[in-house]
Design a protein that fits this description.
Number of helices of chain A: 16
Membrane topology (chain B): Multi-pass membrane protein
CATH architecture of chain B: Orthogonal Bundle
Organism (chain B): Streptomyces spongiae
Helix content of chain B: over 70%
Order of helices and strands of chain B: HHHHHHHHHHHHHHH
CATH superfamily of the domain at 89-312 in chain A: MetI-like
Strand content of chain A: under 5%
Subcellular location (chain B): Cell membrane
Shape of chain B: globular
Family (chain B): Belongs to the binding-protein-dependent transport system permease family.
Oligomer: heterodimer
CATH superfamily of chain B: MetI-like
CATH topology of chain B: MetI-like fold
Structural class of chain A: mainly alpha
Shape of chain A: globular
Domain ABC transmembrane type-1 (chain B): 80-270
Largest sheet of chain A: none
Number of strands of chain A: 0
Radius of gyration of chain B: 24 Å
Number of helices of chain B: 15
CATH class of the domain at 89-312 in chain A: Mainly Alpha
Distance between the termini of chain A: 29 Å
Number of strands of chain B: 0
CATH class of chain B: Mainly Alpha
């Protein structure tokens, strides 16, 4: 079907009233059909993507908001609207709200992670020997399957496992149960998260640093800038957008931690995160209403954080289209 | 960068030693936990329980029996099959859907273009983990719960990152190519299929790699949507090692290594694409 690029404007205006249903209607008259088909073309390409997007993102969000005002259990045909009861329950039962505190362990871990990543990205932007080997080693954990990581570190932390063996070499052998009490368990799990995700931050930072033109370093050196000055006044400002992106990913990531604690402890000994709790409420205790309310709260928090970030860092990169 | 600048940026003296020390230390932190698990996977159950520390070397370096156990009793073969099936369909779907969307958005002007872009843009802000409570009901109402089509559709339908990668790339393809083809009588579909799609190869490679690794590693979606044992993917099948193999660390380790090795091989061969891909994917 050739595009009639020069359809008279009057016809365009007339046809535009029924762009989507038109193909069937106009099947009889061949001439207007071309223009209509032309107009329908982008929609034909977008049909499947939009259907999937709406079915699996927007319908669930709308349903979730609706469920959050009901007492639905996820199976029974009966749904009662209970108003804001679920939200009241969520904010007044301390054990339901306490899971947010666990996020702070992961938030602290993300700070550590960003600092480590920044250090290694700076260091490896120099022309070092074995640079690619180190880069590969630092990045690889990010690619490993989460369940495998969970098992690797269960063995790492277990009694007489990797960590205890390493410590005993240094004469610091202990029989501390690393996953045995809430603080220690959360710190250990947050440590695993640093191990796993530092590589991504590192590669992002490294890419940004390497895109700084080399002449700038030369100029800085001619001006007598020390290495620290170069880092502080050249590298950091140049990669600020990536740092801010990493901070946002870190905050929303800390709130939606699921895999590592679920696989390693199942949420035992005070390591339940917000998502683990929501999944348990929904799929173990059949409290779809309450779980939806929890998910809506999380969604709102994440939207709020994203909004704040876009206000603080108006970055053209965020504007995609 | 000229050799000159590179040389001037090469750190010197004591600083260099400290830098190398820190790099070696970090590499050990990354590698030691993995190497220990590899060693454990070659030990017999007796060697593991007897103790002697996590670092004791296996008596027999060719003891592959734990891998046999993992394959046979851990159903790893079925799991690799299921994962391959899901990978094949979800990656193909993502590439076709992502490139079609990008083509429609970039090459056509139509009423409703802005709202459509808005829909895709806002969707990036909705984290998948939060909506699963309700997504579950949607999937269930289609009768797709506990089938391999549930994850396939979810992976295909909610991947906005790949749409952006295609969109970015398609902009660099000159519109004059489309116009030339149109003058030769090609319609939109054949322009997309014959001109645009082949030129998208680098973007397709990026999407295939990122999507492939993400799907291969995903635990949450198969865990929620495919509880049947025979529908295990590598993640969920490995997760099930926890029960029956209880304290049999040698079998669990073998399972973990089996899952890690394909990733390692892909990484070694496609390093450059992987760095670029993930950097691009994350900044979108």
């Amino acid at each position: 079907m050739t595009h009639t690029a020069h359809t008279p404007t009057t016809r365009v205006a007339k046809e535009s009233t029924a762009p989507r249903t038109a193909p069937r209607k106009t099947a009889k008259s061949p001439r207007p059909r071309r223009g209509v088909l032309r107009r329908a073309t982008p929609w034909l390409f977008l049909l499947v993507p939009l259907a999937l997007l709406i079915t699996f993102t927007y319908v669930p969000v709308a349903n979730m908001i609706y469920y959050s005002f009901t007492d639905w259990d996820g199976v029974s045909p009966e749904i009662h609207v209970v108003g804001t009861d679920n939200y009241t329950e969520l904010f007044t039962r301390p054990e339901l709200f306490r899971v947010f505190l666990v996020s702070f362990y992961y938030l602290a871990a993300s700070v550590v992670q960003i600092v480590i990543a920044l250090y290694f990205a700076t260091v490896l932007s120099f022309n070092l020997r074995l640079r690619n080997l180190f880069k590969g080693i630092l990045f690889f954990p990010y690619l490993i399957n989460g369940v495998a990581i969970g098992f690797v570190f269960l063995y790492f932390f277990q009694d007489g496992g990797t960590l205890d063996s390493v410590l005993s070499w240094f004469g610091a052998g202990t029989d501390h149960a690393w996953l045995g009490d809430p603080t220690s368990a959360n710190v250990s799990l947050a440590g695993v998260s640093v191990w796993r995700f530092t590589g991504l931050n590192f590669v992002l930072f490294l890419g940004a640093i390497q895109s700084i033109p080399g002449e700038l370093y030369e100029a800085a050196e001619l001006d007598g800038a020390t290495r620290w000055h170069q880092f502080r006044y050249l590298i950091v400002p140049s990669i600020r957008p990536v740092i801010s992106l990493s901070v946002i990913l870190a905050v929303s990531g800390s709130l939606s931690v699921f895999e590592i604690p679920y696989i390693m402890t199942g949420g035992a000994t005070g390591t339940t995160t917000f998502v683990i709790q929501t999944v348990k409420l929904a799929f173990q205790f059949n409290k779809t209403g309450l779980a939806s309310a929890a998910a809506v709260v999380l969604l709102l928090i994440i939207l709020l954080i994203t909004w704040i970030q876009r206000r603080l860092v108006p970055d053209e990169k965020v504007d995609l289209v | 960068m000229t050799t000159n600048t590179v040389d001037s940026r090469r750190p010197r003296g004591l600083g260099t030693v400290l830098i190398y020390l820190s790099l070696v230390a970090a590499s050990l932190v990354v590698l030691v936990p993995l190497v220990v698990v590899f060693l454990t996977s070659l030990k017999t159950s007796r060697e593991v329980t007897e103790g002697g520390g996590a670092f004791r070397l296996p008596d027999d370096w060719l003891n592959w029996s734990n891998y046999t156990t993992a394959f046979r009793d851990g159903h790893m073969l079925t799991a690799f099959g299921n994962t391959a099936f899901i990978l094949l369909f979800s990656i193909t779907g993502t590439v076709v859907i992502g490139s079609m969307t990008a083509y429609a958005i970039d090459r056509f002007d139509f009423r409703g273009k802005k709202p459509v872009m808005g829909l895709f843009l806002v969707a990036t802000l909705v984290p998948g983990v939060t909506t699963q409570v309700a997504t579950f009901q949607v999937v269930n109402s289609f009768g797709l719960f506990d089938t391999r089509w549930a994850p396939i559709l979810l992976y295909m339908g909610t991947d906005i990152v790949s749409i952006y990668i295609f969109l970015q790339f398609i902009r660099s393809i000159p519109v004059s190519l489309d116009e030339a083809a149109r003058l030769d009588g090609a319609n939109a579909l054949s322009i997309y299929w014959r001109i645009i799609f082949p030129l998208l190869k680098p973007a397709i490679a990026t999407v295939v790699i990122i999507k492939g690794i993400t799907v291969y590693n995903d635990f949450y979606i198969p865990f929620l949507y495919m509880p049947s044992e025979e529908l295990g993917t590598i993640s969920t099948a490995l997760f099930r090692f926890k029960g029956p193999f209880g304290a049999h660390w040698e079998a669990i380790s073998a399972g973990a290594i089996l899952v890690i090795v394909p990733t390692l091989v892909v990484f070694l061969f496609l390093q450059r694409y992987i760095y670029n891909g993930f950097a691009r994917g994350a900044t979108k």
